[in-house]
Every structure is written in structure tokens, then in C-alpha cells.
Write the C-alpha cells for this entry.
Amino acid sequence: MARKLVIFGVGDMARLSNQYFLNSSHKTVAFSTDKEFYIRSFEGLPVILADELTVTKWANPMELFIAVGYKNMRARVSLFERFKQKKVSFATYISPDACLHESVEVGDNCFIMPGVVIEAGVKIGDNNIIWSNATICHNTQIGSHNFIAANTTIGGYVNIEDNCFFGFSSVVLQNLNVQSEVLVGANSVLTTSAFSHQKYLGQPAKIKGNHALNGICV
């Protein structure tokens, strides 16, 4: 029997997530949002106010997927922590067209798109988005709340902390450490370990700015 799913969000990411979950073991029964974004229905399903998603409501049982994109990644972190405190159960989507070695570990509220390849020994934390055709090489450790865009390649034995952004077709070479809230631009090649809040661009990637106070990208 399909597991009941509530998707948090009423935007493009929520619509896309629902389309992919249609071919999974979950069945979307409702969407949810906060009061300032509330609409009565979305994609033909009812919208539940987030404040009504209490522990009691989840006794059915249901699972929640937070479908908020990368435009404000700190908001994704905040939402995940907020619902985690409510002790809800989170759904993770792994495309049947992704290739994950049997040893791979994946956390809660992750979204792994078609064509993704994840090699042996990889551990992935919570609330990560890994877009189409990305490759995560062996024995890499990925923290939580990261966004890895399409065609990105992460080398073996890389350690990525939390809330990082990797643009389209970016590359991270093997044996590197990437601290929290690093941004690697599209088509950039990271050849050295990366420090928190830095923006890396180019081939090889160089520091091109600091976004410690910028809540838009990270």
C-alpha cells in the first residue's frame, strides 16, 4: 500500500516533486504551507496550514517532504529543523533511474533525480537535493541541506559539510574538504579544499567573494 505523503510548498519545486513521487511508493494526499502563502488547493489537492501539522495528525501514518528549492537555502534548513522538532516522519525520493550502490546511506528528506550515480561507501545526510546526472564518487561524505546541480561530479574521499551549493557541471576533485556554506559556480573545477562562506568560480576555481550575510544562495 502506498504511503501517504504531504508536500510542503506550493511552488515549482512542490509541483515537480509531486510529479516524481507519482511513480514511487508514496501517494500525495495534500500540500502544506505557512499562512502567508496559503491557497485553498494546489495541483488539485487540498493545502493544509503548516501549524496544523502536529504529531497527532501524523498518526495515520503520513510522511512529509519539504519541497523548497535552492533560492533560499537557509530557509530549507530552518524548515527542516522546525518539522523535525514536531517529530514528523520525512520522505526521501530516489529515482528508479538513479544508480546507487547497495552500501550507500541516504538521510531524510532527500531528493535524488534520474541519472544520478552514487558509488560505494558514500554517506549522505538529511535534506539534500541531487539533480539529474550528478556523480558522487566512492567513500565521499555529504552532510545535510546541500544542493548539487545537474551533471556535477564529486570525486572520491571528499568531505562536504552542510548547506553548500554546487552549480551546473561543477567538479570537485578527490580528497578535498568543503566546509559549510560554500558556493561552487557552474562549470567550475574545485582543486583545493574550500572554506566556509566562500564563493569559488573558474577552472581551477578561485575565491571570488564571501556571502556570509547573503541568505539568497546559501
